[in-house]
């Protein structure tokens, strides 16, 4: 079973059961961002969470295959566009275009030469209530990796 | 005075005075991310902050020109690469490639059809201490904009 | 049901019934531009309009699925070319190439640093009668969003 | 004198005189969009308007050259990016990505096979006051050109 | 019936009947270039010519559908490559690369600022006999459209 | 002297003398398209025509160098964009996108497998008077080259 | 029968009969390069050679269709990548990158302004024995086409 | 001295002395293709040939620098376009597009899995006289490199 | 049987038998990197190893076909992206971006003008134990190929 | 002083002193790869090594500036091409194209989901003597970073 087939089965079962990502993440016992990314084929779930997700979705005789597929290391971002045209996703390109050099200046000033890891990394999405209109709050947190010198 | 000349003068003065971005932001009385982005020609400072930054940097007879240039609406991201090859900046493209669809699913589940604004938006960079190696914490916060229906 | 399947069903039913977009929009009780964009999978209809469109088209046992699909937040512009080669659509790229900087200068002169929203936005297409040949009149109207300063 | 040099001289004189585009357009006696586009090297002014703009800007011994340069047919869009990264300009690409097929459907339904001319064309930018935040209103109007059949 | 299906049916019938494009154009009573472009899904035939082409090709129970499809405004150039690698087609890109600026200079010298329309336009292909080897003669003729000034 | 310098000198002299391309071509005794393309660095003039053009333009002590430069085989299309954004030039890309396959079908039907040469080739631009608005008529004529079989 | 189907049938029959390209070319009575290029859908065989190839391959009831398909003028290079990543094919891009300007200088020095035809052209591949390791010898031979002057 | 400056000096001296590439290659005592490629900064001359070329060109006080520069390993193809628009050079891309897979099939049939080296490689350009028009003959010869198996 | 079908069969059998690449390579009696690359369709196995791999995987009546397919020279890198977005693979692009010029300087200093062969080449992947976290060690070893001089 | 100016000064001094990279690395007391990459503006030297390099090169009154510039975190890979056309550098792209998926399979089999770091990373270049021709041996070693799960 490919990751693509896995994702299609998960989305179909989610739709059929009218389950939310919040429900599925709760079943997995892990964060929503990580569980969704795994269901979309971008991350690998640990065995226990994979079993819980597959069981929760009620996939019949495909349950075991989905459970295994959820645990495999994926080839990531295979379907991602170089620059997405979807307005929601494009805004993250725009933020990088406008603030990329600023972020670079400030990380180097604070930490020296190195980067924020995108591997030893987590991401959180929250609603921030605001009388002028609620806001989306996204927190990215990655280990600082200093450049090796040898 | 173009934004490019302005940025060169600011960087040269910053170097000559051994000033940090923290110093310059403190002089401006605004957040470091916003002040740095303005100094790099990606945002427009309000008049008061522009005057403070220009004065702080000690730019001699160019002070007034820089003060004005800092307030003009910039043509943003003129120098940005479509996909940056700098490892620190590239990681933000990678995060969008790997987590873009996940973020989209979760914002729509929580808010419905719409986007996180990148204009009514702020961004914060912090050090998160961690015994296994300190972490970079980046918080993005933008107003949720629902799609108009008419 | 994916948005793509939904669009195919809508177009087939429209063809079979010889319905115009004007008919479908009238059935929906919303503007033609918005209804067409939703039928093409680029916007999400409110529940009531979705029900009316699906009912109007007479889709048999697919009616309910199309009704639901019309309400889901779409991944927009998935099929759009970076630069379309269709002459009608290309002209909008050309207008942006020729008049983009002009529009930018004039919006900034009038409103300061910020943008016209493409989300809190509407668009109208009209025939303007003219003895030398009728004209197409397109009106775009979006909320001015000033850049946040923090 | 190239169009590029012409534009630089115009912008420098505009800045030195603290003139607005509204002032310059008034001096020219033509619409602001057309005059700005000509000053940015994207259109050719008629002789009379060119003379008025050059005179108004007070360009000393370059006045005549600018007056001539403003009248020449330009090589248009030479500096335009295939897809601009500036957020204000990008939104027009986004509108085309999201609404391009919708516009095509509706123009064909109303007019048959053909296009909206981008040559026999005008464009207007207005402020639309709104208690929830003023809006930018852009009106494009171009002759409908039916495809020739032979 | 999509334009793609229509084209496939036309080509299959043309092959089965061993008809030439000259035959089909004669049946349509219009020029070969226009009729071929319509059969390839790049233009829309008037009703009468569409009926004649469909009848001539002998398409059985698909005749009516093809007749209708031939009349619809197409999404043009969907399959065209940005730069074709086919040698015959590439030569037209090469001619534009080598002679594009020359054509621009001479049209502007003769007509002023404006373009040759590619919509109010016709194209003719002829054999020119020549003892050193026959030549292909292509004549393009489009209305001159002067840039609007407003 | 590079071709670029040559072109700049020619254009400056043309401007200073208020000479038209028609004047320069007449002086050269060759067609306007060929002479302009040579002046723009896209073709090589025969010695006699090169001498006449250089003499006609009155280039002082650069006359000889321009005369030589006009005769050198150029690296063609160095400055040409892959797809030009200038509306006049773009239309030729559009014509190729819309009519390329049609032209291919008809040349093969008439001549067999082969191409129209863009080397053993000439091009003519004419005004065609028309009460509904004059038309630009472009005639391309190139030797048919059959594919070698060996 | 499309050229693609033709190529698939030829390759399958070649595999089934364990025939080499040398065998097929010998049956055709033409050079291996030309015959292979025709079998891959890049050239058109003369009728006699097409009949011999189709007969030799033993294609059963598809023989006639393949025989016809082999004679049609192909749309060439439809499947070719702009720059191939296959190491064997890439080396020809590399040779053009490294030696392209050199070849241009030497052809112009020897022949004047013009090109080597890729249409009136043949190509040969040979093994050159060499004690330090055999070498591949490729000979390209095309008619010199001088640029037309008019 | 960069390779670029070296090439400019060589071309200027070649022009001033009216020397041909044949003259310069004869002075170097090596093949014209290799010497020209080295003069254009694409290969490194052995010391003796570099000294002869520099001396032959009569470069005054830059002689020694050019002699050294001619011997340095170049960064090759820095100025080469991904796909050249110059007609002479483009034909080599076209040949690769049309015949690339054919060459691959025949080299593998003759030699097995591997490539023709573009490093242990030479290239020759000759005039082939022909009553129907002389031909350009290009011979490429590179060591066959079999893929390592380990 | 295409290389793609071969790879699918191998991966399915590997999955069904829960075999590791280490198992398959051991069966082949060759290095893991080479055997995996052949199973993924990027290299050709010698006959003996191909037979062992096919037999080991237990492919039933497809065994012989897979055995043959494993030995054919592949069209390499057909599926590879120009720049992969998968984080593991991207890092090798990043290493080339950051260290490419450095590697070039040092190979030329040590060996003169030439390259490291990617054909007469082998690659090894090892785990390097390390108390601060194990490391991936990749060794590439290719014959130095000096540029031919002729 | 920008990194670019720094690199130019270092290369000029290296040339003037006829110093090798081995000499400069020895002076720095660090590995040649790291020191060269820092001199080329791709890494930041520690203070002590920067002082030694600057002193060794004998840069006169620019010594201090170069010493500082060598320590700054660079914007990496600014000048790198997306895919280099230089044959030596291109081979690393080719290796990634041909072996990228193989490396991915084997790292995941050995380590699970994660990547080889290109930051906590070192690289070594060695000559491997071989009677059939010496070989270039490149060793890359980076920390394995497992994907975070949260």
Give your account of this protein's structure.
Ten copies of one chain form a homodecamer. Chain A is of the alpha+beta class and 150 residues long. Chain A has two domains: 69 residues, 434 Repressor (Amino-terminal Domain) (Orthogonal Bundle), CATH 1.10.260; 60 residues, Cyanate lyase, C-terminal domain (Cyanate Lyase, Chain: A, domain 2), CATH 3.30.1160.10. Helix content of chain A is 50%, strand content 18%. The first copy, chain A, has a two-stranded antiparallel sheet with strand order 1-2. In chain A, strand 1 and strand 2 form a beta hairpin. In chain A, helix 1 crosses helix 5, helix 2 crosses helix 4 and helix 4 runs antiparallel to helix 5. The longest helix of chain A is centred in the middle third of the chain and has 25 residues. Chain A is globular and about 55 Å long. The termini of chain A are far apart. In chain A, 55% of the residues are buried. Chains H and I meet through helix 6 and strand 1 of H and helix 6 and strand 1 of I. Strand 2 of chain C pairs antiparallel with strand 2 of chain D.
Describe the protein's topology.
10 copies of one chain form a homodecamer.
Chain A: H1 3-16, H2 21-28, H3 32-39, H4 47-57, H5 63-71, H6 87-111, E1 114-128, E2 135-146
Antiparallel strand pairs in A: 1-2
């Amino acid at each position: 079973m490919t990751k693509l087939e896995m994702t299609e089965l998960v989305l179909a079962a989610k739709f059929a059961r009218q389950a939310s990502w919040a429900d599925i993440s709760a079943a997995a016992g892990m964060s929503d961002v990580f569980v969704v990314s795994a269901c979309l084929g971008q991350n690998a779930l640990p065995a226990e969470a994979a079993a819980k997700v597959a069981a929760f979705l009620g996939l019949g005789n495909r349950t075991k295959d989905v459970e295994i597929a959820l645990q495999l290391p994926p080839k990531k971002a295979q379907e991602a566009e170089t620059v997405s045209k979807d307005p929601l996703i494009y805004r993250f390109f725009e933020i990088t275009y406008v603030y990329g050099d600023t972020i670079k200046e400030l990380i180097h000033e604070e930490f020296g030469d190195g980067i924020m890891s995108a591997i030893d990394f987590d991401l959180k999405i929250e609603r921030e209530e605001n009388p002028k209109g609620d806001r989306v709050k996204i927190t990215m947190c990655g280990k600082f990796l200093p450049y090796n010198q040898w």
